[in-house]
Design brief:
Elements (H helix, E strand, L loop, with lengths): L4 E3 L3 H8 L11 E4 L4 E6 L8 E7 L15 E3 L10 H6 L1 E6 L1 E8 L2 E9 L5 E9 L5 E9 L10 E3 L7 H5 L6 H7 L8 E5 L23
Parallel strand pairs: 4-10, 5-10
Antiparallel strand pairs: 1-2, 1-7, 3-4, 6-9, 7-8, 8-12, 9-10, 10-11
Length: 221
C-alpha cells in the first residue's frame, strides 16, 4: 500500500520533467505526508484544460457516492479499471503524484520498523493516481498500488504504482481511455531502480515533519 510519503523536491525540478511552465509559487517541503491532507498532483482539471500542478484531497469519494461510502487512499491496479467505484476516474481522470519516496513498516522483533523507499539516484518518483470531484465539490484522489517488486517486496507485499519516464505523458492523456491501450503504453518503474533503509519511528506520528525523518537510522531507533 502507500499510506505515507515525502515530497521535498522543489517545483522547478518537477515541472521541468513534464515540460510544464515554470510555476511562480513554491512547494513547502513535506517529509511526512499523511492521508486526509492536500497533496500535490499533476492533472488536467478538465479534458480540454492544460496540465497543471495542483492539489487534491488524499481521500477518494466520487460526487455521486452515498454519504457513508468508503473513502480509500489506495486502489489496486487489479480492480481500478473495472470497479464501478473507480472505473470512470480511471478512464477520464488520471493524475500523477510526485514523491521523493514513501514509507512502509516491517515487523522486526515484534515491533513495527519504518523504512523509507526511494530511487537509488534520488530522482523524484511519479506515482499513478486517479481523482474525482468529491461530494463537497473538491477534488479527491487515490494512489494506485500493485504487487511489490524487487527490493520493495522485502518490506511490504504491495507498493505504489511508480511509472517510468516514458509513461508519464500517456498516463496523463485524457483521450486515452481504453484499458488495453493503456496497458501497452504505460509501464512501471524498473524494480532495480529502488532502494530503502530504516528510519526513525518518529515518522509514526503524522505531526512530525522534518528532514531528519528520511535519514537512515539503526533499526529500532
Amino acid at each position: 500500500m502507500c499510506g505515507r510519503f515525502a515530497l521535498y523536491s522543489d517545483l522547478p525540478r518537477l515541472t521541468e520533467r513534464l515540460g510544464l511552465p515554470l510555476a511562480s509559487r513554491a512547494l513547502r517541503p513535506r517529509y511526512n505526508v499523511a492521508p486526509g491532507t492536500w497533496i500535490t498532483v499533476v492533472r488536467h482539471p478538465r479534458d480540454d484544460a492544460p496540465l497543471v500542478v495542483d492539489e487534491v484531497w488524499w481521500g477518494y469519494r466520487p460526487h455521486w457516492a452515498k454519504e457513508k461510502a468508503p473513502e480509500p487512499i489506495n486502489a489496486t491496479v487489479e480492480k481500478v479499471a473495472t470497479s464501478p467505484y473507480f472505473r470512470g476516474a480511471f478512464a477520464h481522470h488520471r493524475c500523477l503524484v510526485p514523491v521523493d519516496g514513501w514509507y512502509e513498516w516491517l515487523s522486526v522483533a515484534g515491533k513495527k520498523q519504518p523504512y523509507f523507499l526511494c530511487r537509488q539516484d534520488r530522482e523524484p518518483i511519479w506515482l499513478a493516481a486517479i481523482w474525482s470531484e468529491r461530494p463537497d465539490g473538491r477534488p479527491g484522489g487515490v494512489i494506485l498500488t500493485e504487487p511489490a517488486r524487487g527490493v520493495a517486496s522485502e518490506i511490504h507485499p504491495r507498493m505504489p504504482l511508480a511509472l517510468e519516464a516514458e509513461s508519464l505523458e500517456p498516463w496523463l492523456d485524457p483521450h486515452l481511455t481504453d484499458r488495453a491501450t493503456l496497458r501497452q503504453v504505460v509501464h512501471h518503474l524498473p524494480a532495480d531502480a529502488l532502494t530503502y533503509w530504516p528510519v526513525s519511528t518518529r515518522v509514526n506520528t503524522p505531526t512530525h515533519d522534518e528532514a531528519s525523518l528520511v535519514e537512515p537510522v539503526a533499526p529500532g531507533a
